[in-house]
Amino acid sequence: xxxxxxxxxxxxxxxxxxxxxGGVTSMEPFLKKFFPSVIHKMNNDSGEQNEYCKFDxxxxxxxxxxxxxxxxxxCFFASVVTRTFGRKFSMFxxxxxxxxxxxxxxxxGNIVMLILGRLLxxxxxxxxxxxxxxxxxxxxxxxxxxxxxxxFQMAITIGILTANLVxxxxxxxxxGYGWRISLGLAAVPALLMTVGSVFLPETPNSLLERGHTExxxxxxxxxxxxDHVDEEFQDLFxxxxxxxxxxxxxxxITNPRYRPQLVISFLIPFFQQFTGINVIMFYAPxxxxxxxxxxxxxxxxxxITGVVNVLATLVSVFxxxxxxxxxLFLEGGVQMxxxxxxxxxxxxxxxxxxxxxxxxxxxxxxxxxxxxxxxxGFAWSWGPLGWLVPSExxxxxxxxxxxxxxxxxxMLFTFMIGQAFLSMLCHLKFGLFxxxxxxxxxxxxxxxxxxxxxxxxxxxxxxxxWEEHWFWKKYMKMEDTHNSGHGSSGASTSAKSV
Length: 498
What we know:
By secondary structure, the protein is an all-alpha fold. It has a single domain (2-492), classed as Growth Hormone, Chain: A (Up-down Bundle), CATH 1.20.1250.20. It contains 26 helices and no strands. Helix 3 (28-34) crosses helix 4, helix 6 (87-107) packs antiparallel against helix 11 and helix 7 crosses helix 23.
C-alpha cells in the first residue's frame, strides 16, 4: 500500500500546473501583462476576426509547452539517477526542482522569469514521470498492479480538477493578480511530493539493483505483509543478477528480444498524445471561450470536464484488473472516435470554414456533452493505461531505458501538440477534431493486433506473453537462436511465476 498512498500526491504537481496553465492563459490580466497581442486579437472589432484564431500566438503556447520540452531532456538524466540512486531520490529531487519553478512562476515580473519557471517545472516533471510508474509497478503485487498504478492517473485527474476549481475562483479576484495565486499554488502539491518521498520505502528491485540484498528481502517482507517471500524474492534476485550483466541497457533494448518493449514504449505514449486529449485538457477554457462561452462559463465548463475525468478514472481503477487492459483500450478508443467526429461535425456546421458563426446554448451544451464523453473515454482507457502498460512490460535489465523512452516520447509529443495546437485550430479549424479522430482509429487497430493482455501477469514473468503472441514471438525465437551457446537472456532468467 505504500505505492498507493504515494501516488495520489506524486504526479499531482505536474497535472495541477498543466491544467492551471490552460486556465491562466484565458485570464485577461495575465494576457495583458505577458501577451498583449492576444488581447488585441480578442478585442478586434473590425469584422475580420476568425473565431478559430483568437488565441493563436506561438509565444503563448511556448509558455505552456516549454515545460514538456524541459521534461523531455530531463527524463534521460532521470533514467540514470533513478537507476543509480534509487526511485526515492529521483522523486525527491523532482519535487524540489518543481517547487522552485512554481515559486518563480508566481513572482514572475517578465516573460523570461515566466519561461524559466516553466523549464524548472519541466525538470521536476521529467524526474517524477521517470520514477513514479516504475516505483508503483515494482511495489505492487501482480493481482492489483493495475488498480494501484492507476492511482498515478487518479493523481492526474485530481490535479486537473483542483486546477480548474482554482482558476474559477482566482478569475473572480479583483486586482488582476489571481493568476499569480493559480500558478503559485502548484507549490502545495510539490511540497507533498517532496515530503512524501522522504517517508517512502525504497523498492526491493531498486535495493537489489544497488547491491543491498538483505535490505531488499526485508523490504519485500514488509510490503507483502508476510514472512514467506522466498519464491518471489528468488525471482527478483535472478532478474537483478541478469540485469547486472547488461552493461548497456540502451543498446540492449534494441536487441530483438526486447523489440515489443521498445515498440510499445514508443507507440503507446505517441498515440496517447495523438488522441488529442491535451487539446481539450490544456486549453479547455480557451477552447470553450473560442466556441462562444463567456470567461466564467468557459472556466466552469473546464471544471465540469474535470469532474467527469475523476469519476471516469475511478471506473478504470475498479475494472483494469477485472476485465483487463485490452478491453478498456478498445472501448475507450471507440468512444473517443465517435465524440471527436461528432464535435468536428457540429463545429463545421455552426462555424464553417470561415469561423464566423456562433453556437446557441443548446448546441454549446451538446458540444460540452461530447467533450465530457470524450474525456470519460480517455480517463478510463488511454489516460491511465498509457502509463501503466509501458511501466509493467519491461524486464529489470531494460526497465529504466524503457521508461525513459516512454516518458521522453510522451513529453516530446505533448510539447509538439501543445506548441502547435492553437495554430492548428486556426488553420485546420473544425478539421482538427477529424485529424485526431484518425489517429484514435489507427491506435485502436494497433492495440487490437499487437498488444497482448498483461492483466495478472507477474512483472518478472512478463516475457511469457511475448513468447506466445502471434507476432512478437518471432523476435523471441530470433534472440534465442542468436544466444544459443552463449547463455540465456536476462528476460528469461526468472524462475517460476510469483
